[in-house]
Design goal:
alpha+beta; five-stranded antiparallel β-sheet; 125 residues
Length: 125
């Protein structure tokens, strides 16, 4: 299988974190990877776009024979912050979760905002 990509736009509504999980789940269902981790990381990046960027955002899934890359493009140029852990705070753990679970992750500025992404390995059959 050669490289493949799918993408979908979402409005910045809290309910769309679940819609992003479903989109990623449906788009990766036949792949051999850690789906729970991928869905959690995608949901965290989408939640950041919804809560902090407050702009429509695009979720792009790129697939190669060895890797899966999920990108969330939003309209805010503000970089997400990797905050110090605070066990009493109800939020602020999303990027730490992504950092812990992804094989790679990052933030790229783009002319219309930013792209936050992570990569996860696919099992080689």
């Amino acid at each position: 299988m050669g490289p493949q990509a799918v993408e979908r736009w979402f409005e910045p509504e809290l309910s769309n974190a679940a819609a992003v999980r479903m989109f990623v789940r449906d788009s990766t269902a036949a792949m051999d990877l850690n789906h729970a981790a991928v869905l959690l990381m995608a949901s965290e990046l989408a939640s950041n776009a919804i809560v902090h960027a407050r702009t429509p955002f695009c979720v792009r899934i790129d697939v190669t024979p060895t890797d899966l890359r999920v990108e969330v493009h939003d309209g805010s140029p503000d970089r997400p912050l990797l905050r110090p852990p605070d066990v009493s705070a109800p939020d602020g753990r999303g990027l730490r979760i992504v950092r812990a679970l992804a094989s790679a992750w990052g933030v790229d500025p783009v002319p219309e905002g930013k792209r936050v992404w992570f990569e996860a390995p696919r099992a080689l059959g």
